[in-house]
Amino acid sequence: MGHGARKQLAELLDAAQRRGDFSTRIEIPAHVLRVEVDGVGELPLPLRAPVTRKLIAQARQASFGRGEQTLSDTRVRDTWEITPDRITLGGTDWDRTLDGVLDGVRTALGLPPTVVLRAEPHALLVYGKGQFFLPHQDSEKDDSMVGTLVVSLPSHHTGGELVVSHAGRSVVHQASREKLTFAAFYADCLHEVKAVKSGYRVTLTMNLLAERIRPAGEDDEDPVADLAHCLTEHFSEPAEERYAYGRRKAAPPNRLVYLLDHEYTQRGLDWDRLKGADAVRTTLLRQAAAETDCEAVLALAEVKETWDAHAPYDYDDYYGEVEHYDDCEDEECEGECLLDPDGEPGAERRRSGDLSSYVLTELIDDELTLSWWTRPDGTGGEQIDLPVGYAEVCATTANKDLTPYQSEYEGYMGNYGNTLDRWYRRAAVVLWPRQRSFTARAEAGSEGALRELQGHLDAGDLDRARTLAQSLAPFWKHHGSGEAAATLFAAALPVAVGLREADTATTLLAPFGVEVLGERHAPGLAAAAARYGRTWARGAVGSWFGTGGAYTGAGRAAWLESLPGLCTALRAVEGDGEAMASPLAEGAWQAVQQQLTSWLGIGRETERRTGMERLGASLARVLQAADPETADTIAATLRGLPDTALECLLPALRTAACQPTTTRDVVPAARAFQTLADHCEERLAAALTRPVRAADDWSLTPAGSCRTGCGLCADLDAFLTSRTRHIMEWPLAKDGRRHLHNRIEQVGLPVSHITRRQGRPYVLVLTKTDAVFTLEQATRARAETDLAWLRDTWPRARG
């Protein structure tokens, strides 16, 4: 029954009176418009070639937008452009005529009668012979922009057709030679200008802005009653699983997500600026929602579909593009090995680009996630992360009938067939019964649900707040990090404190990542620790670090930068801020320690040193955040590490030295920093007392340890440790050569290893390079520089 209700609802909306299309065309006499251009004067219509050439002399090469970039590439857009500040539009009847055209456009595009359109000039474009603009979408240059109006000035030319496409349909607009031609279309429509074959194509482009002025009316013919029945059935019948096979059906769905046909940006998604059929359908849905006591919001969705698919049969490369791997060492290979992007033999390379002509045979899987929605009260919107199940989705236009913004094709791999992944961005109307509004919003990690809980607390209804908060447990999952999560956490903190129930407070706060914590949260954190105790606080901090405590990527590193300020704020506010500050510093140290241990195991010096230097800044922030006892414990642990740890300790000391207060007693970690500085000074001084390598000493440290028992590595180590041997020629089969290649590369030894491909077996030639000496000289010079800096910046205490 659930699927039947959704199917009927989609059919009802599809059958609703169609009041518009995605594009329209209007022609009017040319005499109503007078166009003046700086440097050219008034343009006589129809335009002739001499005047058009004067326009080109005043124009510039047109650019185009790609994401946040503005680009100029005549392979994509080849046309001349004059900016609107140099154009004057007038004429005795122009304003009245334009208003009439815009009224006709509004009706033709299916915009509601509550909307009035306004046209804002954008540019004057001139296309000469051979010039064109490839398929593209217009960016919404204003919050109220819904589309584009192209006014073609009459001229004698061939070609240059404007082709507008949407949802599998295309409309071709050819300009008149005698009249003004107005072509209007929604901004999300894909459109192109075909190459001009002869003459010149001259157009004025305008942004179509929608403004709500007229009062709303009623339409008694709309099928609201039938839609309301569908909504009631959807929210009362058990949710149907896609592959149920007789299994018991689940509870009724909490929401209905109806996908719209047009694309919208976050700032352009508004009930009064919906396009074409979307405007008609959403009006009907909202009326049906009012009759069934449902709330409705607008949302943005990310959709991914995976199809069983194959390339068209007329493609020469049916099995995809392939490449030979140049570094293949297979002696029998004649350049026929196939590798995927990860280098695994036998796999076809992934293929991307224009895959629109691929044949879709069967839908394998799909995913839909709501990423943003408006608030029910209409006051803005919020970021969310809500996966939506099959039983909650409804659409009149299927995804496959729209143009994906990204596609990826994977050819036959031997154990599964050809697959085509397609991604879409779609807008949607999301509805839920009003009595389920808290659950529907809370499942999305909505700040509105927390505001509702806070409202019950403020009203003194503690029992109601606890009951609702406890209902979150099944779905109040991971909320990640970022500004949206930090805002949500700020709303959750006072609610957690006000509930006066430790387990429920844990449920509310545990799903966040530690990266969301900042100084603004200090009062709430201290209050929560004071209410629920230090054991609870330590457990809460542990949940924020999560199981991936060793992760020190960009997000964690940025958070560690703010950790000292957070801990200082915690220790300064009312409550028990220390109960939060101590485990935060300890957890951060555990994460840094795990990463430090990992880097110490890397043999390649350049790779290890780079990672250790980055980690040094994080280590400094951890020490600055720690209390004196914890900082001293950390320093003692660091002093027990091998000398390679100095590659991290010295950057940490340099980071701390950038803040002079770290060397003073007022900073809790000052003693620990000085201890580490003294330790680094001792180790560097000791390293500089070692004798300098003799000019004839080619000895190297063995290349780690071999765990395979290969019988080759003992000979390799004997060569490496020899003072006199610096070249070794070694006849070896492929597997043996590869094993020795790997051992040398993993440690980063200054030894070249080249295979001489003559005879059988091939000969592996090992040669110790001059880096044996230069690397050691560079290390000694660096140690001398570091030692001088330490003694100047971190002088030992005297007496």
In short:
The chain is of the alpha+beta class and 799 residues long. The chain has 21 helices and 30 strands. Strands 20, 21, 22, 23, 24, 25, 26 and 27 form an eight-stranded mixed beta sheet that branches.
Which geometry do the CA atoms define? globular
Radius of gyration: 35 Å
What do the pLDDT scores average to? Answer: 84
Characterize the largest beta sheet: strand count, sense, and whether it forms a barrel.
Answer: 8 strands, mixed
Q: How would you describe what is shown here?
A:
By secondary structure, the protein is α+β, with helices and mostly antiparallel strands. It has 21 helices and 30 strands. The strands form seven sheets. Strands 20, 21, 22, 23, 24, 25, 26 and 27 form an eight-stranded mixed sheet that branches. It has a seven-stranded antiparallel sheet with strand order 1-16-12-19-10-8-4. It has a five-stranded antiparallel sheet with strand order 7-11-17-14-15, with no helix packed on it. A hairpin with an 8-residue loop joins strand 26 and strand 27. Helix 7 packs antiparallel against helix 8, helix 11 crosses helix 13 and helix 16 packs parallel to helix 18. The protein starts with a helix and ends in a 6-residue tail after the last helix. About 6% of the residues have low confidence.
